Amino acid sequence: MAKVAYYPGCALEGSGGPYDRSTRHLVKALGLEMENLRDYNCCGAMEVKNVHPMLQTYLSARNLAIASEQMGLDTVMAPCNGCYHNLKKAEFETATSQQVMDTVQDLARKADDPVYTGDVRTLHLLEWLMEELGPDGIKQRMTRSLNGIRIANYYGCMYTRPRQIFPEKDQGPGSESSYQPHFMDDLLAAAGAVNVEYPLKTACCGGAHTLSDSDTSTQLVLNLLQSAEDSGAEVIATECPTCHSGLEMHQVRAETEFGIRTGVKVLYFTQLLGLALGLSPRKLGIHENVSDSIGLLKEKGVI
Amino acid sequence: MAIHEKSLIETERLLEHDSLVVDGVDVSGQWNTMITPRTIVDYDDDFEAKIQSYVGGEYVHRCWQCGSCTNSCTMYAQNVQFNPRYWIYLTRLGLTDELIKDKDIIWQCVSCNKCTNICPKDVKPEGVMKALSHWLEEEGITEKSPSRIFDEEFTDQVYDYGRIEDSKVMKNFFKESGQPLVQGWLVEFTKRMIKRLPVAHLVRLGTNVVFTPKTKSWGKTGEVLKAYVREQKEAAHG
Ligand code: SF4
Ligand code: SF4
């Protein structure tokens, strides 16, 4: 098993804290090896590219260069969709355009930063778990079960779009699909969950405008929550801190501003997998989620 | 004929009659709507090139008007006036007056990339949406959108520290966009957030607002990037 550089990004060190903690505990419990990406910088999230796209490309390339030049690692693992997307985009753009690569290297030299040479690949946490263990590996390590809890798996925009920057997706059996992603479904099913048919798997939560156009975001989140409930789900599993916070925030906003209540709980997939591995809810940060799922999890005999 | 895309025609040019007889034939009902003819003379022949000079707008010329972008668009599903295909069409023709009619919604693109994902001509419509909203703002046709204010606040923190702290971005954004920090739903959200949170986490969240996390090796990176962006923008728009 190869060691990877773990890139938490700003979100996991901020509002996505429970995702960071559950990821670390999960990875340890699974016996996988990762090392923090040293002194990393922000990936630019969804905002920096709007000031200038090259800025975003550079920020991500700088992180990739830290992994290879300073840590000697050839894989960066990011659990955040935004970080993952931006790193993949930088990987893709530098690989397909000599001009972009030249600009990135030129900027790095001017700034005395490590220089990216195109030798690093990026994996989302979901992909890393699939690559190292797969559903069978998860099953073998389980000490408890998710007891048939019904889950809508929500992947969001940036894990799948645009498909052009993820050349390894859509490569037939075993690969991830950009149109019908299934890695999270596969892992959670192995942990004893029942995945519902969820048509909005890759719909947008309006994360880019969470605060700047809140009404739109609330509407988009409501679509997600209500469709999950219509699909019979008790829980929405997330794999992105921005989606997760957006769902939680706008669930509360829909309730307080528009009086629309939805009962579906929001949990990180790492929290759910961690429970199946026998980790305590406290370690997994389940008490830190705004969406209060403790009652449901008890009722289901999961904790 | 029944008119299906009425939303594309200005209301003042639609003439609807309760009953209508043309050359002795009663054409009331389905056939009662007429469009007053209009000869368009206000083309801006350089407009397409102008949008191409904005980052994101480079490939607008490739569009063949298939409509896939609008068909898949998240915002179109919320509001049929939000129509990337149509705006790209107007851009290519240089019909800026028509475009300006939708100035207040163009910035609402949520960057979900459904359009860019599906576009068969690699136009990157999401980029065109950003280019158009930046053009509107920079020409002074609209105020800076809340989304632009947010982007700039965010990027400034990256320039300065290499990292951002989300609650600080949020606080500054509310200040700059003139929104109150104390809003009912946010108070409720915060209450629920801290209800079961261990004290240590609360303290950490609090100190992060005061001390922005910093990339120690950031050095002159921020300055180099700022200079790069300035040069690029000057080269494109003078
Ligand atoms: S999908 Fe592409 S080619 Fe089709 S209308 Fe939209 S921008 Fe034009
Ligand atoms: S990126 Fe913008 S224009 Fe494209 S589909 Fe999403 S909301 Fe519509």
TrEMBL record, chain A:
**InterPro entries reported for this sequence:** Cys_rich_dom, HdrB/HdrD_reductase
What does the record give under GO molecular function?
CoB--CoM heterodisulfide reductase activity
Q: Where is the Cysteine-rich domain?
A: 4-88, 154-247
The stretch of residues making up the signal peptide is: none
Task: Write out the coiled-coil annotation as residue ranges.
Answer: none
**Which keywords annotate this record?**
Oxidoreductase
Gene3D superfamilies recorded for this chain?
Answer: 1.20.1050.140
| E.C. no | 1.8.98.1
Q: Which domain of life is it from?
A: Bacteria
Record keywords: Transferase included? no
Q: What is this protein called?
A: CoB--CoM heterodisulfide reductase subunit B
Q: Which species does this protein come from? A: Thioalkalivibrio nitratireducens (strain DSM 14787 / UNIQEM 213 / ALEN2)
TrEMBL record, chain B:
Report one GO cellular component. plasma membrane
UniProtKB keywords: Iron, Iron-sulfur, Metal-binding, Oxidoreductase
InterPro entries listed in its UniProt record: 4Fe4S_Fe-S-bd, 4Fe4S_Fe_S_CS, HdrC_iron-sulfur_subunit, Helical_ferredxn
Q: Quick check: keyword Signal in the entry?
A: no
What positions does the domain 4Fe-4S ferredoxin-type occupy? 97-129
Any one Pfam family here would be Fer4_8
GO terms of molecular function: CoB--CoM heterodisulfide reductase activity; iron-sulfur cluster binding; metal ion binding
Q: What is its EC number?
A: 1.8.98.1
Q: What is this protein called?
A: CoB--CoM heterodisulfide reductase subunit C
Q: Which organism is it from?
A: Thioalkalivibrio nitratireducens (strain DSM 14787 / UNIQEM 213 / ALEN2)
Gene that encodes the chain: hdlC [H]
